[in-house]
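Pipeline run #58 for the internal structure catalog. This entry was flagged by the ingest filter as a single-chain record with no existing model, so it goes straight to prediction. Upstream metadata was stripped on purpose; only the residue string is passed forward. Reviewer on rotation: M.T. Logging verbosity set to normal.
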Amino acid sequence: MSTRISEQGTRRAQLHHGTNQSGMRDHNERVVLSLLRQHGSLAKTAIARMTGLSAQTSSIIMRMLEADELLRREAPLRGRIGQPLVPMALNPEGAFFFGLKIGRRSADLVMIDFVGNIRAMRHVPYDYPAPDNILAIAEAGIEEMLAGLAPGQRERLAGLGIAAPFELWKWADTVGAPQDVLDQWKGCDVRQLIQDICPFPVYLQNDMTAACGAELVFGQSKDISDFVYFFIGSFIGGGIVINGSLYAGRSGNAGALGSMPVPAPGSPKGTPQGNHVRQLIDVASITTLERVVTGLRRDPSPLWTSPEDWGTMGPELDEWIDNAARAIAHAVVASASVVDFEAAIIDGWMPADVRTRIVTAIRGHVETFDLEGIELPVILEGTVGIHARALGAASLPLADRFLLGQKIFRKVDQP
């Protein structure tokens, strides 16, 4: 480990994308890899037609990517006159990436392959995050996952991304953590903390922006160029995609949708003022539901430990869904008045049926608003699900080394 994690494989990973002598070839390779990620598989003729590259240039690029084992040949397409077309697709074994999600209630470490399949995952719940604990979780998890790889696979590890809330120390009261523990994050460079145990590059992004990136890279929304994204976790947050690229903003905190003012539950119709205004984070977060469940003297732990199944819940869940949906509907309309988004995508740390109910309720609420002058975006369910933040973290090194798009993360070069 650059000290503790073995350096085996780092040199091979450096031989992959990003070290070509020709900058133009580097760009064209990213074009091809991005197209294949969007479409699944394509023949060389289709690549040439879609990119505007010559057939010869396209063929050369495809051969080089195949030689690097980033692409693989699919079954020939027969039934045509002449030689059968041979589609090319991303090779899942082409590269591997780690993603570390640092949450307010738990940490997740995942390892994904080149197409985004989760090859290994470790979920560690806690009462609140502390830097030393996060480092121990990351180190133990990386060691464990590396041990499960063959030597050739370890040589293809290309980086680790971290998805974490910014300014964690401000959440002591909300998560019930000792202030002195969370204050440790003030002077902590978590990116460098993890980089010091890794021989491969480490990246850092806001957790909600990273979740939005997961929808962009791995989700079913690849054909949508502009969308606003909401992820409902311990606290609701979001991200923004413009022109097919994740937009992080000047400080990396664009899409801080949880801070948006919305009507408080039960407030009268019309323009809410004073006590009738809340931030979205206070209405549509899972911690809000947790307080209600705790107040009913029931165990709220399934909300954090069983995101696929929250068990039997009654009117308290119905009320939370309606309040959250109404608040998110206001946020969707407000967002659409600033940017002409094609879609608003809703995902979260919750069972799929709860997500469906929330999206259905949002659609119902926006129909009651005055939408004059606003083209309402289509409201869709997210397609990545509960692991969006961890997968978004893993997508950071993938996007930096292999895809087109803005570089919306910050990288620490390997020592």
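catalog note: The chain has three domains: 17-92, 95-212+389-412, 220-383.
catalog note: Residues 222 and 302 are 32 Å apart (CA to CA).
status: ready for reviewer M.T.
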